[in-house]
């Protein structure tokens, strides 16, 4: 999840690029439900620790096999540590907590607003300019997320559980945008893409583990096919495969093409929630998703410039 370039990328018929988009969309569209299979017996703090510790080891091995350098400079390590703390520690801990209170698809739709949060954050802090179409897309995205927010409150009867879950998801999305700033800084420092993500996951899992030790979390484990299967899927596919494909696609074809993934993810997540969580969404939710998707397309297609 990084910041999409504001420069438009011409349509491509490259089968490998389109396959990468499809694979990432399906994986990330299903991980939101897979997270719910981690909830229950094992504390979410422990599950997040296991997920990214395993993912970092696997990604380090992948980098080693590819011959990608694993060493980073001090400045690169600082930036990557920030990425790990924000993205793979605080953000995902809040996501796991949010999904204990609201449907996984609602969290997915809220995270579709990440591109819009990136636009604002990078404009304010880095002065990056965007075309008016991008800002229109951002506004539509915000309205869409707000519609989903209201729809979920109505669906749940406006209880405190739903409100807590929605707030956690919104804050997690803002934290994710902040993590992208750290990722951008690591890129500016010349850190290799995949090895920097591996280090970020390692730092993130270490910080979550430390938090768990300080707060007295019991690092138990549920030796069931459901828990082990979801852990392996989230670690190896949701973290390693998807991130590796995403960043390689972004480097080869541009972040604009890669950003179509975030437009395709919410419908898949909604379908998973309806089928496996028995979630039912009204017309407000449908409107919210439609606005998010239209806004995402406008943002992707907007030419660079003020």
Give a description of the structure.
- Helices cover 77% and strands 0% of the residues.
- The protein has 12 helices and no strands.
- The two termini are 24 Å apart.
- The relative contact order is 0.24.
In a few lines, what is going on in this structure?
The chain is an all-alpha fold and 306 residues long. The chain has helices at residues 15-36, 44-66, 74-98, 104-111, 114-126, 132-155, 160-188, 193-215, 225-253, 255-258, 260-276, 283-301.
Features:
mainly alpha, 306 residues, 77% helix, 12 helices
The overall pLDDT, averaged over residues, is 82
Please provide the ordered H/E string of secondary-structure elements. Answer: HHHHHHHHHHHH
What share of the residues does DSSP label as strand, in percent?
under 5%
How many whole angstroms does the radius of gyration measure?
18 Å
Distance between the termini: 24 Å
Indicate the percent of residues in helices: over 70%
- What structural class is derived from the secondary structure elements? mainly alpha
Please tally the helical runs, counting DSSP H or I stretches of 4 or more residues.
12
Describe how the helices and strands are arranged.
Elements: H1 15-36, H2 44-66, H3 74-98, H4 104-111, H5 114-126, H6 132-155, H7 160-188, H8 193-215, H9 225-253, H10 255-258, H11 260-276, H12 283-301
């Amino acid at each position: 999840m990084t910041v999409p370039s504001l420069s438009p990328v011409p349509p491509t018929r490259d089968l490998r690029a389109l396959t990468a988009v499809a694979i990432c969309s399906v994986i990330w569209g299903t991980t939101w439900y897979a997270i719910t299979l981690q909830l229950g017996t094992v504390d979410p703090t422990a599950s997040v620790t296991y997920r990214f510790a395993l993912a970092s080891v696997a990604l380090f091995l992948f980098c080693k096999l590819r011959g990608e350098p694993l060493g980073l400079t001090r400045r690169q390590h600082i930036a990557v540590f920030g990425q790990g703390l924000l993205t793979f520690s605080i953000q995902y801990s809040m996501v796991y907590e949010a999904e204990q209170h609201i449907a996984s698809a609602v969290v997915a739709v809220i995270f579709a607003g990440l591109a819009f949060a990136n636009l604002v954050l990078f404009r304010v802090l880095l002065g990056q300019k965007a075309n008016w179409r991008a800002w229109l897309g951002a506004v539509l995205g915000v309205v869409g997320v707000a519609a989903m927010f209201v729809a979920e409150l109505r669906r749940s009867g406006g209880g405190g559980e739903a409100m807590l879950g929605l707030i956690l998801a919104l804050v997690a999305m803002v934290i994710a945008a902040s993590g992208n700033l750290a990722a951008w800084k690591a890129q500016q420092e010349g850190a290799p893409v995949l090895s920097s993500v591996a280090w970020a996951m390692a730092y993130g899992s270490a910080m979550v583990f430390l938090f768990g030790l300080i707060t007295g979390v019991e690092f138990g484990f549920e030796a069931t096919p459901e828990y082990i299967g979801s852990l392996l899927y989230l670690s190896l596919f949701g973290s390693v495969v998807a991130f590796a494909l995403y960043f390689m696609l972004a480097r080869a074809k541009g972040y604009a093409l890669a950003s179509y993934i975030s437009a395709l993810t919410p419908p898949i997540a909604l379908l998973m929630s309806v089928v496996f969580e028995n979630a039912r969404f009204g017309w407000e939710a449908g409107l919210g998703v439609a606005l998010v998707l239209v806004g995402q397309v406008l943002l992707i297609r907007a030419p660079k410039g003020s």
